[in-house]
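Practice problem 4.
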């Protein structure tokens, strides 16, 4: 090893040791204690952004600039800050481990090993990322604009748009589309299977919920469907065509693709696409405008398959309702609806009382 090589190695090792030193007293260090959940979460983020070796446990931040760019590509500042902290924490921890091994190798005169480790591109990557503070990631970061709400896909549609869609559709996704138009279910719930039940001329739909956790979603909901042109087509499918009452699709997004295609064929100049979520927003809007939502405050949430009542606020508004002909006559769900917006409701009520 030449003197030049030796000086370069020493300079890199010194840079690594300096990177472990906190730039100010409030900075996290390699000794900062994290909860087990946070530790696991940070490692998961680092693996995703750094890239991993064959054993799936060795991190390889070969290109620090590309990792920094990935962190800066997120849309929310809270995510940016979390990713930045995760990246720095893992870099500090790994750099500390490497320096301990290098110290041992130097004491044992394993100079080739020291050179091999220090000259790895990942060593430079760890130094750069360990020195990079979360606040520095914000420099040059541009938050993405908020995702466009699918509510606007209802804008400009004629009152009978659902009937027009039904009359211009055919093929393997025709019946699943009718189910979505009639129930407002999620496309993913068609993968779980929606069961149609026809009794005494009345049609019901039993929906196995998607997005269900301990604190969110409805495992099962049963909608007694209104009588309209769409439900009549579903009755015909069950009676005359002897169709399978359990409606399923393997790829849920294919139904939205089908609906988008049908909508484009009917309204070729329309900018906003019509998808399964257009029907879901329309169902929410119609239910909110229905007297049933006044007599039963949980009605809208149950129809949409929500367990928290504030989630319905993200869906279609009363003013977007076209009529009540698609509003279910009744709904049952497996879980009670939680009142998360009780406080805001009380505040609104007090304000209304002051104004009245």
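Answer key:
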């Amino acid at each position: 090893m030449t003197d030049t090589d030796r000086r370069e190695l020493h300079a890199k090792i010194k840079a690594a040791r300096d990177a472990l030193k906190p730039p100010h007293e409030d900075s996290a260090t390699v000794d900062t204690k994290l909860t087990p959940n946070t530790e696991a979460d940070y490692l998961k983020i680092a693996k995703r952004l750094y890239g991993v070796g064959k054993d799936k446990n060795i991190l390889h931040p070969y290109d620090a600039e590309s990792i920094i760019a990935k962190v800066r590509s997120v849309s929310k500042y809270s995510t940016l800050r979390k990713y930045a902290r995760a990246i720095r924490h893992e870099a500090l921890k790994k750099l500390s481990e490497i320096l301990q091994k290098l110290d041992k190798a130097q004491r044992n005169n394993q100079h080739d090993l020291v050179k091999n480790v220090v000259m790895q591109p990942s060593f430079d990557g760890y130094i750069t990322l360990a020195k990079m503070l979360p606040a520095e990631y914000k420099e040059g970061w541009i938050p993405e604009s908020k995702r466009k709400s699918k509510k606007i896909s209802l804008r400009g549609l004629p009152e009978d748009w659902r009937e027009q869609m039904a009359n211009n559709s055919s093929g393997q996704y025709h019946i699943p589309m009718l189910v979505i138009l009639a129930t407002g279910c999620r496309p993913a719930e068609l993968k779980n299977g929606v069961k149609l039940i026809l009794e005494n001329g009345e049609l019901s739909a039993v929906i196995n919920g998607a997005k269900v956790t301990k604190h969110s979603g409805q495992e099962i909901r049963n909608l007694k469907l209104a009588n309209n042109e769409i439900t009549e087509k579903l009755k015909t499918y069950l009676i005359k065509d002897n169709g399978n009452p359990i409606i399923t699709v393997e790829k849920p997004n294919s139904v939205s693709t089908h609906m988008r295609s049908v909508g484009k064929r009917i309204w070729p100049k329309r900018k906003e696409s019509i998808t399964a979520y257009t029907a879901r927003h329309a169902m929410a809007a119609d239910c909110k405008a229905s007297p049933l939502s006044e007599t039963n405050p949980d009605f809208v949430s149950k129809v949409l398959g929500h367990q928290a009542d504030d989630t319905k606020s993200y869906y279609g508004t009363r003013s977007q309702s076209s009529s009540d002909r698609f509003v279910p006559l009744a709904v049952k769900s497996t879980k009670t609806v939680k009142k998360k917006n009780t406080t805001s409701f009380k505040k609104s009520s007090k304000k209304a009382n002051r104004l009245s």
